[in-house]
Amino acid sequence: MESHSTLLLQGGTVLDGTGSPGIAADVLIRDGAVVAVEAVIETGAPVFDATGRIVCPGFVDLHTHSDLTLLSGPEARSKVHQGVTTEVVGNCGLGVAPLPPGADIEGIRAAVSYLDLDPAIAWDWRDLPGYLAAVAAARPSVNVAALVGHVPLHAAVCGFEDRPAGPAELDRMCGLLADALGAGALGLSTGLVYPPLTYAREEELVALARVVAAAGAVFTWHVRSYDDGLLDSVAQAVRVARTTGARTQISHLAAVGRRNWGAVRGALDLVDAANADGCEIGVDIYPYVHGNAPLSQLLPAWALEGGAAAWAPRLRDPGVRARIRAAWVDRPTGWDELTVSWTSRGDADPALGRTLADLGGADAALDLLAELGAGAMMTAGGRSEDDLRTVLAHPAAVVASDGLALDPGGITGAGVPHPRSYGCFPRYLSRYAENLPDAVRRCTSEPARRIGLPHLGVLRPGAPADVVVFDPRTIADTATFTAPHQLATGIDLVLVGGVPTVERGTHTGRRAGRVLHRTRGTTG
Length: 524
Known about the structure:
By secondary structure, this protein is an alpha/beta fold. It has three domains: 6-56 and 457-475 and 486-508, Roll (Urease, subunit C, domain 1), CATH 2.30.40.10; 60-289 and 382-418, TIM Barrel, CATH 3.20.20.140; 293-380, no CATH class. The chain has helices at residues 69-72, 77-80, 105-111, 128-138, 150-158, 167-182, 202-215, 230-244, 263-276, 308-314, 318-327, 356-359, 362-372, 385-393, 420-431, 436-443, 445-450; strands at 6-14, 23-30, 33-38, 47-49, 54-57, 59-61, 84-89, 143-146, 148-149, 187-191, 218-222, 247-250, 281-285, 291-294, 338-343, 376-380, 397-399, 467-470, 491-496, 499-503, 506-507, 515-517, 521-523. Strands 1, 2, 3, 4, 5, 18, 19, 20 and 21 form a nine-stranded mixed beta sheet that branches.
């Protein structure tokens, strides 16, 4: 398709993103905005035939880890090919800013290695505006908005030791957070399984949540435990929300380990009770029963103290290894449920795609961690399909990938990553959407509202022309756990800011994404 400032999407069924039933209508796009949604529009504009297709807003992925992969591969192929037009980065506390004077940048980079697939990326920024300027300069195919990651915030001020933040340190963290929120961050994310956040006390969480609440922003939580401690961990997030009034999002709600199946119902009960009392707490989930995480997440918190430079060599100590093996005796997931998905040794690594049971169990895990430190990732099973459906059906739930924008032909196309990076939204719509208008709402306007960008995710006059046209009969995820670098099918057209970015399964090469700010609209 040629580049046009005006385009008519003709003959499709429009789902406007609000959950309203579909209507037969044409959609007129001009200069990056929706101009009209009417039964029949007569104009001399170029036409895209959407007959038999769904026309809806672009998907708003409120939970991603594309912070650095968008700099390596700004085409964002794995995401835009599945209909994503907006990525929210900085989740699970794993952000890349702020990096104030005195921050241990190499230590922080190792702590957020889950994001860091390309060692050639230079961290030239020192604050959120600097990072967002780097994103804008890369000209991504998708819109990008950012949360403030709790890891760099805490590590820059308190380091990587197991101790509470002092009053002056809390004040400094709150000041850095307030500055980033003032610069347009959507909110704050925490990830309490990632060091040094494993050492963050509730006093710190409350102090930061008060700053978030005062700004009218959102606080997203990777809670402290998703296995045996799930209910206590969700209770903590709810408690902080009740105390501070911060709008709260609980990320990728799931129960890990067969003995914990069904616990999501209790977690949702806690959310419902708080919302009935006036809180605003949402949850999100991806439509898979496997997760993805750094291999180091298996280690007890005490073993991770001091950062990767300290804990990796520590794992060569026989006494330390014996103590960790003892802690692993009653693990909620088996070694056969954990698969090595990426390592810093590259695609020639014989461990890739093999379970830890196949590699040797606990000793294999310790050997990998001692050698590679933060440079190893895993996919992890041990979840229930019934739990997944329970969360997806809940009124407080939206869909989010928890994945990365990857380029199957580039440096970020390495390893055997979780297929959610390629197939989250098509998988949800083709396998789990019992009510398609409501399912689209959970992928568009509702996540946009949660993150404070309510002008996104709707298809109405005046809205940005971020639009997806898909065939409800053929939309599907093709990525698998053994062959994950496969683009989704059934997506006929993706417009980002009115610019055709994907057409009939092919990236057009055009990159019209913008950097989005919570308080200042858009730029970039």
